[in-house]
Amino acid sequence: xxxxxxxxxxxxxxxxxxxxxxxxxxxxxxxxxxxxxxxxxxxxxxxxxxxxxxxxxxxxxxxxxxxxxxxxxxxxxxxxxxxxxxxxxxxxxxxxxxxxxxxxxxxxxxxxxxxxxxxxxxxxxxxxxxxxxxxxxxxxxxxxxxxxxxxxxxxxxxxxxxxxxxxxxxxxxxxxxxxxxxxxxxxxxxxxxxxxxxxxxxxxxxxxxxxxxxxxxxxxxxxxxxxxxxxxxxxxxxxxxxxxxxxxxxxxxxxxxxxxxxxxxxxxxxxxxxxxxxx
Amino acid sequence: xxxxxxxxxxxxxxxxxxxxxxxxxxxxxxxxxxxxxxxxxxxxxxxxxxxxxxxxxxxxxxxxxxxxxxxxxxxxxxxxxxxxxxxxxxxxxxxxxxxxxxxxxxxxxxxxxxxxxxxxxxxxxxxxxxxxxxxxxxxxxxxxxxxxxxxxxxxxxxxxxxxxxxxxxxxxxxxxxxxxxxxxxxxxxxxxxxxxxxxxxxxxxxxxxxxxxxxxxxxxxxxxxxxxxxxxxxxxxxxxxxxxxxxxxxxxxxxxxxxxxxxxxxxxxxxxxxxxxxxxxxxxxxxxxxxxxxxxxxxxxxxxxxxxxxxxxxxxxxxxxxxxxxxxxxxxxxxxxxxxxxxxxxxxxxxxxxxxxx
Lengths: 279, 358
Hints:
The complex is a heterodimer. Chain A is an alpha/beta fold. Chain A folds into two domains: 11-110, Nitrogenase molybdenum iron protein domain (Rossmann fold), CATH 3.40.50.1980; 153-277, 3-Layer(aba) Sandwich (Rossmann fold), CATH 3.40.50. Chain A has helices spanning 2-23, 32-40, 74-79, 94-102, 116-129, 133-154, 181-188, 206-212, 230-235, 243-246, 255-259, 265-277, and strands at 27-30, 47-50, 84-88, 106-110, 160-169, 172-176, 191-193, 201-204, 216-221, 250-254. By secondary structure, chain B is mainly α. Chain B has a single domain (2-39, 77-357), classed as ABC transporter involved in vitamin B12 uptake, BtuC (Orthogonal Bundle). Helix content of chain B is 76%, strand content 1%. In chain B, a hairpin with a 2-residue loop joins strand 1 (162-163) and strand 2 (166-167). The two termini of chain B are 26 Å apart. Mean pLDDT of chain B is 87; it is low at 1-12. Chain A: Residues 26-279 form the Fe/B12 periplasmic-binding domain. Chain A: This is Hemin ABC transporter substrate-binding protein. Chain A: InterPro entries: ABC_Transporter_SBP (IPR050902), ABC_transptr_periplasmic_BD (IPR002491).
């Protein structure tokens, strides 16, 4: 009799802890956009750690940092005792991911992509992992609408040309070519990438910059680093001669907002568009 | 051999140094065992070593996650640290003895530049491999390519510098510079076509880390490194003779050519395997032999085993710092060996200037 009562109580206790665990997800969020989406879905209190690229919203920076998304250490991630890892495509290394899966932690990969549909898919996948599919569907619809509306207003029959400058090192300019997130945001914002001849981020010669004659120079606003000042651009042998520098059309936008392709991409499209066409 | 060694100058110091060498080797062995056990209790998750011991003694055992941390993360990491640390240090000792140059390291025979080139090729061009091939290699593609790169470069340099059955050290050094420049240029081309994330991978590879330690990597690298480590003592007598110059060594009955070939192959195997699994970890290979020479003298019979032990200890300590310094993130170990090792080595140099100039 006594043992039976005991076993029932024990079973109930085990059952209730199981339910408690079910409700108390502990999430490690890998990738700036992933973190942003979890915040947008109102589930930020479940995040126990993030990666180095997760800088928005500002509160996210308060969370423990498990390192750069492509150089994760297995014990570092395990030390925050997660039950779920939501990671952007390309997180790794594979050895680390294998160990984490071995430790029976749920692992969800979020694909990258530079279209409204891709952003909606990211949101839906994260929503499903969080058991918040409905909220995710609402957010995805809203973000898609934002992006499409912004892109529609932004579209121009005769697009101006935009040079995205990733960095200037020793007067050498690193610019964005095709198949980059910068290229995608420029065309969504009704502009044309001034460097369409190559793929990825590459150093470009000053002559090529002069030849491209961009109407706008677009850059990332770096938080703690040394941003490139207008004076430096005007004094630069290549950038200084462009119509953009001459007319002072130089825009700086936060890197994650501009290139993250997440919930705020509609805003990013508008900002770039304003920098391009607003008088 | 006995008559000859009596003719070596300062032979009367030998007894004193010999005893010291023995003591230092024993002390280092004990220290290594202690460090290795201790390293099993250091990491971002906590779980210190006394708690692990207490759990086993009380028969409680570990939870699923804890046993993964202990057996699949910390243990292979410890074994890899010991293997890599001793491989790098013993290789450094052999190279410095062989080239009779205090700056010599395995980089001289092209291991470093070859491994780096292999790794870069795998990181940048790996995505162009046919899916089936890529699946077969999986995560071992980069280590495999680094190892092949290290070996191919070393063999090339050996062929270039060997003529009529004689390897010229001078030609090897110069050819090494040429090959280094060439592989640097090829790396440059690949870096140019690499995308953002590949560039980050390359940077992290160059700083080295034991964070990606797995048993698979240990099993693959261990035979190469162990063969080199266990056969190294056979080189001790020849390396001692080499200190007097190549010609003197020959007169002492050393088959200098055979010894060179053997040493180069051992170093290429051990360092190639070490670099392949851990990336570029600098400084250990060049500093450890010097530290030991200052304390136990230049006798390779003690220098070789002692550098294996000290190299392993230093790398384990550096790795323990790497695990907890910025937890839950992990610091690349190459940064730590340089930050801790640089100033310490400078201090040793300043204190022992007289000894090194002699």
